[in-house]
Write a structure and sequence with these properties.
Helix 5 links the parallel strand 6 and strand 7. The chain has seven helices and eight strands, in the order H-E-H-E-H-E-H-E-E-E-H-E-E-H-H. It is of the alpha+beta class. Strands 7-6-1-3-2-8 form a six-stranded mixed β-sheet. It has a two-stranded antiparallel ribbon with strand order 4-5. The protein has one domain: Peptide methionine sulphoxide reductase MsrA (Peptide Methionine Sulfoxide Reductase, Chain A).
Length: 221
């Protein structure tokens, strides 16, 4: 049996992407800036979240009933056209984020926020699991006052269950930058990759076990 130290080393070695765990102070988008509201298209709405490695978060939201598609990318920072290599330095201000395209007639924004908190350690600062650095920090992006109020109300309820303060930032949405093609659907396309097997899949399974009523029908089998 591997020792705890050996297991920890293995997880760090196979962290999301190239294993960079540098922690830097992020220059988050101006919190006083008015949020940008993304219009619905083909009766679908969009929501934006950051919660550690986007490979993990993409797979979690894609398992939720009413979610049509999830795209991995970057948001919350101050630079234009961020790349994976640049964001991984922790100096762009961007966090690995996801764009959730969903049917509001099937799943509400409120439920997506509950999924957000229910699929992570909400008190971990600048990271999730073995991934550490400002690029892995937790952020809930709001597009209008209604979404901000929903986030704040749920955050207040979630906070009652923890001794530590919640780590997630609540930030007005500005812009989402789509990540490189090789990051999209990464967990589904690379099931044998070490990080996926040791971190992403267990995180997904834990979420699905906790919220079976929110899953797409095929996930129940």
């Amino acid at each position: 049996m591997k020792s705890i130290l050996s297991l920890t080393f293995s997880l760090l070695l196979f962290s999301c992407g190239n294993g960079n765990t540098k922690t830097s102070t992020a220059e988050t988008a101006n919190l006083n800036t008015d949020p940008v509201e993304v219009p619905m298209q083909d009766n679908m709405a969009k929501a934006y979240f950051a919660s550690g490695c986007f490979w993990c978060v993409e797979a979690i939201y894609e398992s939720v009933n009413g979610v049509q598609e999830v795209i991995s990318g970057y948001s919350g920072g101050h630079t234009e056209n961020p790349t994976y290599e640049a964001s991984n330095t922790g100096t762009t201000g961007h966090a690995e984020a996801v764009e959730v395209i969903y049917d509001p007639e099937v799943v509400s924004f409120e439920t997506l926020v509950k999924v957000y908190y229910g699929s992570q350690n909400p008190t971990q600062v600048n990271g999730q699991g073995p991934d550490n650095g400002s690029q892995y920090r937790s952020i809930l992006f709001y597009q209008n006052d209604e979404q901000k109020a929903i986030i704040e109300n749920i955050s207040s309820e979630v906070a009652k269950g923890f001794d530590k303060p919640l780590a997630a930032e609540v930030v007005p949405f500005q812009k989402f930058w789509k990540a490189e093609d090789y990051h999209q659907n990464y967990e589904r396309l690379h099931p044998e990759q070490a990080y996926i097997r040791s971190v992403s899949v267990p995180r997904l399974n834990k979420f699905q076990k906790k919220f079976p009523e929110l899953l797409k029908s095929e996930k129940h089998s």
